[in-house]
Q: What sequence folds into this?
């Protein structure tokens, strides 16, 4: 706790300042901040990391902790510390002051949830894909009632195209135990509408496209370093629940649509990562792998990867290729499978990064890359579906 929320816990450089002790109805303000209103205290807390939240029955105690933190950080005790040491004890979460008040450590906040129900058991992954193929609305004749049901649930009449599957015999697919059979790779045509595509692109601009970064080493507070490198040159913006983007109409609708298709609760999905690739930009071969959230599981998280293409460019012809309309943005390539899926507006690409027989085990064959964009701009949105509830874990401050 003193590492993740050191400034709220007033523990920097081994020095600890005792927090005030008071009842909920009391509020003792340190003398140097006694003229500050609550909103001003919260704004001032942003100088020491994430702006703090103070609400509910512990609001006054939390504000008191914020006030004492501000006084502490203005003291000679802190001014004598090195800049690196002060930087190392930023409040990394908006609830640090609240946690300091109730005295909860990180292990208390984020214990493994032993009774959590996983989205997939061994053998369920292949069954899920079999059902997706069998129930695709665009691959069969729909009744008027079925069309109405799709419309009522904000579903499109998407068509599923199979690029790879373990077997042509569904009965054998549900018992896949090794990597001797091919993995699943499927495409959904017309999964996202033109209007939804445009909205997602604009949300990316609203939340500011920035140079994409890879996940780096685990930091002391449970988060990971962000590393920019020459292997990944795209830009991205996060459609996060923290900024309200996830709960906007279109992102919420797309999360719900993916949930209905996979029969996995939308809370198991990470926030959308909205991508922008300009001419020549790419992301070299990589594998999607995540460390566990401590409050979800002490095992590696299962991962299923939906990739939505939300824009593309066309031209009439291209040098060294036959004439005709052609998408010139970079495709998603699986080098170990010999599969490349070209982007197309409204198209979704779905693949698992784990085995059917063991949803906690990486399938290394699913390494993939975003090929360089040849002309124009490619917009896309990544989602990652986890074995356990991801949204609630984030809300609890587990990273």
A:
């Amino acid at each position: 706790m003193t590492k993740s929320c050191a400034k709220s816990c007033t523990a920097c450089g081994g020095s600890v300042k005792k927090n005030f002790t008071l009842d909920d109805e009391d509020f003792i303000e340190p003398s140097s901040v006694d003229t500050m209103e609550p909103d001003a205290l919260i704004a001032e807390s942003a100088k020491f990391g994430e702006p703090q939240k103070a609400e509910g029955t512990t609001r006054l105690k939390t504000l008191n902790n914020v006030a004492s933190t501000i006084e502490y950080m203005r003291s000679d005790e802190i001014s004598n510390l090195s800049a690196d040491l002060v930087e190392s004890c930023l409040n990394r979460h908006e609830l640090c002051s609240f946690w300091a008040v109730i005295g909860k450590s990180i292990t208390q906040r984020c214990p493994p949830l032993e009774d959590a129900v996983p989205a997939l058991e061994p053998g369920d992954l292949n069954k899920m894909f079999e059902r997706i193929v069998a129930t695709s609305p665009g691959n069969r004749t729909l009744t008027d009632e079925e069309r109405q049901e799709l419309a009522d649930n904000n579903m499109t009449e998407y068509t599923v195209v199979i690029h790879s599957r373990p077997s042509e015999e569904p009965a054998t697919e549900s018992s896949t135990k090794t990597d001797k059979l091919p993995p699943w790779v499927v495409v959904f045509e017309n999964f996202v509408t033109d209007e939804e595509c445009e909205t997602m692109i604009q949300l990316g601009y609203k939340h500011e496209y920035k140079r994409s970064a890879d996940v780096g080493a685990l930091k002391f507070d449970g988060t990971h370093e962000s590393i920019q490198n020459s292997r990944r040159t795209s830009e991205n913006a996060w459609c996060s629940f923290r900024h309200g983007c996830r709960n906007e109409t279109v992102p919420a609708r797309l999360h719900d649509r993916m949930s209905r298709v996979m029969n996995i609760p939308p809370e198991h999905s990470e926030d959308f990562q909205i991508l922008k690739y300009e001419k020549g930009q790419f992301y070299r071969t990589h594998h999607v792998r995540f460390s566990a959230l401590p409050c979800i599981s002490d095992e590696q998280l299962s991962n299923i990867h939906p990739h939505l293409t939300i824009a593309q460019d066309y031209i009439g012809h291209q040098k060294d290729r036959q004439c005709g309309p052609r998408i010139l943005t970079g495709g998603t390539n699986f080098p170990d499978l010999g599969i490349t899926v070209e982007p197309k507006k409204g198209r979704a690409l779905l693949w698992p990064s784990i085995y059917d027989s063991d949803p906690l085990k990486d399938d290394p064959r699913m390494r993939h890359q975003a090929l360089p964009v040849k002309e124009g701009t490619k917009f896309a949105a990544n989602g990652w579906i986890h074995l356990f509830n991801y949204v609630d874990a984030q809300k609890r401050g587990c990273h």
The chain has a mean pLDDT of 76. The two ends are 14 Å apart (CA to CA). The chain is about 25% helix and 20% strand.
